[in-house]
Amino acid sequence: MNITEFEETKIVGRRVFEGRILTLEVDRVRLPDGGESIREVIRHRGAAVMVPVTEAGEVLFVRQFRYATGEVLLELPAGKLDPGEDPAECASRETAEETGYRPQTVEKMGEFYTAPGFCDELIRAFLATDLVPAPEAEADADELVEVVTLTVDEYSEMVARGEIRDAKTLAAMAMWERRRNSKLETGNWQHRMPGS
Question: DSSP secondary structure string, 95-106?
Fold first, then answer.
């Protein structure tokens, strides 16, 4: 496939909104066939989602209220990248802040776009292991979370019942379960945290 057969090029654009975590742009684009269209795009600096696995093989999740959905959701810990932050460092920091445990080993499993039809947010998925208590870590002041520990079977049953509907959680868990089931060796992705 040749990208030029599908690529749309920006003619002109304007920034409609700039917030704390995202911006909204509205662009007029030229289509491959020469026509024009409007694209509304949310720009996001990216995030990390973690699968924190205990020595017993259980996974730490967080339960929190999501204002956009009006629901309390059960999710894997995740967080947006600070400007210039390494995604693996973000994974370690966010795991500690949201679960109270800092991973000594962080392995990248993959990455994915959350909603490429209108948003450029790229989430990197990490496996977080060798967890140690991190009493110094505190969640963000505007974030209230409850840590929930699940076995793989409990997680699978909740998914089957439609009780877990967060896309980043479903995607990251699928990546981890595939690795776990196939015993895929990924030493080249391993990232030991400083001081560990």
Answer: HHHHHSEEEEEE
